[in-house]
Amino acid sequence: MNHTRVLLIALLLAVLATSAVFAGGEEEGASGAPASFNATGFPIVDEPITITALAQRRSRDVPLADLTMFRVLSDLTNVSVEWTEIDEGYSERKSLALASGDLPDMFWGSGLNDSDILGNIESFVPLRGLIDQYGPNITRFMEIEPAAGQIAIAPDGEIYGLPTRLPHRPVAYHTVALNQTWLDNLGLDVPTTTEELADVLVAFRENDANGNGDPDDEIPYSSSTWDRRFDWLRASFGLNANRANSEFVHFQVDEGQITFLPITDEYRTFVQYMRGLYELGVLDPESFTQNEQQWRSKLRNDGSPDFVVGLAAVFTIESMFGPRGPEEYIRIDPMVGPTGLQLFPDNSLQGVIRNRGSITVLNEHPEATLRWFDVHYEDDWSVQMQYGTLDEQLTLLPDGRYDFLPLEDPEMSWDVAKWMFAPANRAAMGVYRDLEARIIPNPTTAVKIADDTINATFTDPSASFPNVFLDQATTDEKAILWTDIESIINQNFATWIAEGGVEAEWDSYVEELYSAGLERYLEIYQTALDNQ
After folding, report:
1. Which residue in 350, 356, 426, 472 could disulfide with 164, CB within 3.0 to 4.6 Å?
2. CB of 248 within 8 A of CB of 221?
3. Closest by alpha carbon to 271, among 526, 102, 452, 504?
4. Who contacts 155 (Cβ-Cβ below 8 Å, separation ≥6)?
């Protein structure tokens, strides 16, 4: 078939398609959106539509389709969502969808990263124009919180993933919980240095610290895959970084220059210290393999009146140890390290995030989908996305503040409860600072705020690497490099703690990292930092 004939057929098909829309199909408005679409007000569409969504979830999360707020949102907007939520295997399913072109109408919430978008940019609808036309709440949020708007802008100037600001995020993520009852039982003081900490943990192991008559059930220090780097403790060794990103936790910025922590002498000293704890028998050997649910069960020692873990870095004591936790555990300051440093890793960048909502090119209703997302950024809905539904978990007071209704289970923590009533941290939302100030902290959050007020005094945000947005080619290159670099770091770290060998293998380890492309990897990020 010659090119002229192909062109004529294409033009004819285009004319016929246009004629079908106006003659027998759904008439389009001036903007290109169907006539049943309403640019303002509710419902968003006069005739109900269904859009498909791929979303990431964890085992503890209630299915989004079961949440009251999304049923209310569907009734309000006439937009229903056919959810596909995946826990184990989400990354594989996401990658397969992007590679095959078998796309959902939207990716919702957490789960998409820069590489997913920029490496498949033809699969995503640019959002800036849609936001300008149909996203007044998103626009307002990005104007009030310019940092959120800025991080959402891709290198080509477009927005492909919506930004989010989460409420009440701590500057220092960890609360380090130590069992005060065990200290009292053994006549010990709260440790203040890394050396004293080791001594206390050994005492826990050797002296039936919980006093139940079983000298072998104590686990002096336990962690999980949730925090297998032991971030809070390594900061005492001068390894201070932004813990909110799996890559940037290894970056420390000093006068505009990146230090890559896993190749420093301080890192080697920290590994030696952790190896020492392991050899002393005070570090839970399952810290590298148990997931958060398994770890939580161990911390609570479900079914037993006795706690068996002496030390853990948690979000809050109550959320991880249960309602009895605050009766036995206390928050402690970071340890003073071997060079006199006393630091917590900075977490201040974690609350502002990009890529929490994207629309794909297969979506036949991009305007309606953008408006549906825009509802997430209205004040009431932003608060509900984090904590639960108005009149069920929350109440709006006459003065415009939000308060929490009592939980049916008085032993439940709000850190646990919010995941039962809301998508919480994984959702798209826009809780700007003034809106956050109108949320009366629930009891759990109030405790965390009090802890963080103290913990934050030990952080140094200036050392954190910012959340830069690389271009597509550089993102692809960096992603390949990081896969190998991260694997080398994680494998050696776990092996050195469990089996030793860091002293003998250090030089070859550093050489292996450079052979994997570390120099180029750091060059990429140093250039991004210089251009920030």
Report:
1. 356
2. no
3. 504
4. 118, 469, 470, 471, 472
Whether the CB-CB separation of 54 and 94 falls below 8 Å is answered with yes
Single-letter code of the amino acid located at 13? L
pTM: 0.82
Query: Cβ(389)–Cβ(72) under 8 Å?
Result: yes
- What secondary structure does DSSP assign to 269-291, as a single string? HHHHHHHHHHHTT-B-GGGGT--
**Dihedral over alpha carbons 499, 505, 506, 507 (to 10 degrees):** -170
CB count in 10 Å sphere of residue 381 = 20
The Cα 350–Cα 167 span in angstroms is: 11
Q: Where does residue 433 rank: exposed (0-12), middle (13-18), buried (19+ CB within 10 A)?
A: exposed
Contacts of 405 (CB under 8 A, 6+ apart): 392, 393, 394, 395
| Residue 394 parent element (H or E) | strand 394-396
φ and ψ at residue 116, rounded to 5 degrees: -60, -45
**pLDDT tens digits for range 487-509:** 999 999 999 999 999 999 999 99
User: How do residues 202-260 score in pLDDT, each as one tens digit?
Assistant: 999 999 999 999 999 999 999 997 676 798 999 999 998 776 677 888 999 999 999 99
Strand partners, 79: 49
Per the structure block, which two tokens stand in for 185?
């039982």
Which token pair is 175? 């609360």
Q: Which of 178, 182, 210, 202 is nearest to 192 (CA)?
A: 178
DSSP 3-state assignment of 315? coil
Q: What burial letters (b/e) apply to 145-173, b meaning 16+ CB within 10 Å?
A: beebbebbbbbeebbbbbbbbbbbbbbbb
The rounded distance, in Å, linking the Cα atoms of 300 and 176 is 16
